[in-house]
Specification:
Elements (H helix, E strand, L loop, with lengths): L7 H23 L15 H7 L7 E3 L5 H6 L4 H8 L33 H15 L5 E6 L6 H12 L4 E7 L2 E2 L2 E2 L12 H5 L3 E5 L3 H16 L5 E6 L19 H6 L3 H11 L4 H23 L16
Parallel strand pairs: 1-2, 2-3, 3-7, 6-7
Antiparallel strand pairs: 4-5
Bound molecules: thiamine diphosphate.
Length: 318
Amino acid sequence: MTSHQPAEIGDLAAMQRIRSFEEKTRELSLARQIIGSVHLSIGQEAIPVGACAVLQPQDAVFATYRGHGWALARGVPLAPSFAELLGRSTGLNGGRGGSPYFSAPQYGFFGENSIVGAGAPIAVGAALAARYDGSGRVAVVSFGDGATNQGAMHEAMNFAAAFSLPVVFVCENNTYSELTPIAEMVGEPELWRRAAGYGMPGSRIDGNSVTTVRDAMAAAVDRARAGEGPSFIEAMTERLVGHYIGDVEHYRPAGEVASAWQREPIGRLERELVAQGVTEAVCRAAVQQAADEVERAVAEALAAPLASAEDVKEHLYA
Ligand SMILES: Cc1ncc(C[n+]2csc(CCOP(=O)(O)OP(=O)(O)O)c2C)c(N)n1
């Protein structure tokens, strides 16, 4: 990398990998090659990319059903991720989990979760374990704005603060809880203010700026690693697609999505880099390279055999 290519070129490529992965996922889902519901994070890529940039291999990340971006930002390879979506035996989880259950602990990605708010107590458990196992692990959990109203979230945040556990709570506030605006569901729409009630630092940041996310996460992770306890980050963002594939988005005001495209994180970072003197060609090349990588990975996944029905009873616990 030359002095004309700042480190943020890597962020641009990382965000584009997620964007291309999800655009291809939407195509495969609409073509009925992916079974089950799919929740995309198009527009929210700066949050996992900025957050995971400051993590170490021993750290543990927990996400929601909208978590493909977190898995990829953690370093999970593209081909097994596509294979998982496509029900292939080479999938991350043997093709058994699908879109909302990606899990790859070998990459420090301890899984998506379809139960709203359920990742938080599990992350707190991982943080509590870190106190005893000497791993130095920090646990990071992402969740939506709607999830902050789940009881499990309250219990998790209270416990983490009471015991000064190394957890970072990352609220991806895309302003909708499923199909309902968060502002209609809470008395205090500035969700970060809740952190004070638990006794932990809270902040509201621009979640469409990858550098802002990275800086806020660096401070929270340093604090957690130093034994000073949890933090709450409310990262403001916008989802550029429906809640799930097939959502007709009747609840969104006319023009909202078109205007959100003006603020999305990839184009924004490109404009920032160009203003710093990086050529448009360099930006385009990083974006194209990421998109090409995705094309190769999906071809590899599609060539793999489907998961076998023979071993469907394996890996079950009762
Ligand atoms: C415990 C539980 N209650 C309800 C649901 C149904 N549900 C799925 S997504 C969702 C909205 C969550 O919104 P938010 O937390 O803001 O996350 P986003 O989908 O915007 O990323 C709900 C209520 C669920 N999956 N789990």
